Amino acid sequence: MKGTRVLDVNRLAVLVRIAHHGSITAAATSLSITPAAVSQQLAKLEREVGCPLVDRHPRGVRLTAVGEALAAHAETIVGQVRAAEQHVQVLLGQQPTQLTVGTFASAGQTLVPPALARFRREYPDVALALRDLEPPDGYGLVTSRELDLLITHSYPGGTMPDAQGLRRFLLLTDPLRLALPADHPLADRQRIALKTLADYEWISGGPGIPNRVCLEHLAQQAKVNVHVAYETADYQVTLALVAAGLGVALVPSSLLDGLGDRRIAVRTLTGSPVARGIHLAHHRQPNPLALAMIGFLTRSGNR
To answer: pLDDT > 70: what percent of the chain?
Structure first.
């Protein structure tokens, strides 16, 4: 990159969208422009930087090492520009008119709907949007202010990403319970040791998925091996497989409240309580709409 040339903020914003969406086409859709226009802006930015920022492959693009480094800085830069725009609007008496929340699927089924409903009643004229994001995704979207709030989680045995200058706090703990077929040989026990389930087939996420990492962590602590026969990231699919008698699984309590399926027995693992944490991440200076939603989510979590 030559001398003191200043990179164009709009082109940096395009790079951020490419990084978040993983393809030129998806980035173009999110920006409401054509893929050709995105490619043109990217090409200009690459000329300014002096090297390629993405590698193209059949299913999209992958950022180069330079592209990743620049995108990380660009998220902060774009976020600060948007924060400045919002601040000026407030000084001019113009209040925020939209709020975007990111959440993972199971929180979207339980925690989020009542909070969104309360928000809608209090702020009927605000444009409200929800994005489905599975952890650890979403932090960069908050940094760049494409998201106002991010609901994310942590499981035992796993690690959380750096919050990168954001604020993150624990919203609630969600105990993990053992779900097994009602006719399972161990279903007559209220508390079941993990080691007694070593010979049974398990249902969990694929390798590296947080609930799978958690299961393997607990198995390692118990000094047993568990066989995951059925891999799914969807807890509703997990419960359907348990109900069909195909295996056992660890499932968050929030998804078992009011479960009326008599084909499923819900029990507790012996030993120390096991729970996932549900966290909320947001900007260090959230706008009034974000603060209101934080309050609604906190009340939903404390029901």
So the answer is: 98
